[in-house]
Amino acid sequence: xxxxxxxxxxxxxxxxxxxxxxxxxxxxxxxxxxxxxxxxxxxxxxxxxxxxxxxxxxxxxxxxxxxxxxxxxxxxxxxxxxxxxxxxxxxxxxxxxxxxxxxxxxxxxxxxxxxxxxxxxxxxxxxxxxxxxxxxxxxxxxxxxxxxxxxxxxxxxxxxxxxxxxxxxxxxxxxxxxxxxxxxxxxxxxxxxxxxxxxxxxxxxxxxxxx
Length: 211
Known about the structure:
Blueprint: H1 30-51, E1 56-61, E2 66-73, E3 81-89, H2 96-114, E4 118-122, H3 133-149, E5 155-157, H4 159-166, H5 173-184, H6 193-206
Parallel strand pairs: 1-4, 4-5
Antiparallel strand pairs: 1-2, 2-3
Helix pairs in contact: 2-3, 4-6, 5-6
């Protein structure tokens, strides 16, 4: 059928100087914007590569005389491995400032060598009536200071929390050590602060934190 109401023919514009490309910024800034975008991409790639590395946890059992530490590493979907562990020992005859400085220096060396992404510290039971309480509080201050200087925010874990992660809340070292030896294929562990440090790092990796 014939169309009795035909649409009018489209009118061609009389303006013959249409732009060939859209210019949203002045030409003088194009190079600067491209350079800035490239720098953002490079930073993002660097961040991605750094986060793709296996996360490492540093577990710490605080003490003025025998501080235990342990480095644990694992991918989120894999079982963790113990990289290293040890003790920071200070001499009882030295002055308190000297012993605190020794802990600070040794801990900085450990962090610099192993580059942990996280730090887990035991939150000990504080009793003002105990003579060692003042020293232990100052050790905790040093630990937090060193962590802060390295851009890390410590995770605090109660003793009952990290103990219950491997055994019972009141478990002793002689009960925890065999479990850790079996889990991480370790030689017989000496019953000292290193046992606690390994268990603290493992509890933090499992997600057990202080509430």
